[in-house]
Amino acid sequence: MLRAQASIFMKQFFDLFDARKIDFSETYIGIAPPYTSLDVVREAIESSEDLSQIVHLGAQNVHWLNTGAHTGEISAKMLEEARAKFCIIGHSERRQYYGETDEVVARRTLAAVENCLTAVVCVGESAEQFKAKVTANVIERQIEAAFKDFSTLRNLTQYLVVAYEPVWAIGTGLAATPEIATSVHTHIRKLLKGIFGEDLSKEIPIVYGGSTNPANIGELCAQKNIDGALVGGASLDPNGLFQLIINAKAAG
After folding, report:
1. CA 233/CA 23 separation, integer angstroms
2. Is 165 known to be catalytic?
3. Which of 91, 100, 125, 185 is catalytic?
4. Is the pTM for the entire model greater than 0.85?
């Protein structure tokens, strides 16, 4: 998304809120544009006193160090200066196309939360792993690796979100069935409980990502342990995204 496109998107998106008088006071909406459009989206958010309470700026990645010679990387301190509130970490495209390992995801996650950025940590299995019925094993490995350094940082769980995004469902139009999604989310909740304890684990949202759209989001969000959505392609259309949010809110 280019800067001009981001500007148009935000105006059209916010106009929909103005036209529909719906109570979104308990809704968290995050928008994570490319780095070059962070300021465009931020200015749009901050221009609305009401919507700035529910719409939050995020980034698509973060580096694990705040200083040093790391050409091309964006640190948590830089994102803080840009007034970002969250960042996406370990997205399947980063893992698949840029070789991001579980170790790298763990380092990015720790850097984010230590700088009070909410880390949306993505986990999920490939089509081959899904067919081999090893989804639970893959998710367990990814979760345990991402949070292995949190034993002494339990006070930072308020900055954690887990996103289950089955790789075979991303951009394919093949969303996981509600039964598959809730089964994996329940497994994730169990893993979080083992790491953080029952009370803290309940406070960590688990969202679903993978070909979500206005038609299927309601049934997905009605399931136990599905606390929201990480929306990909469907988020590029302001009208579709707005309807998706309304349907998710109605289901929840």
Report:
1. 25
2. yes
3. 91
4. yes
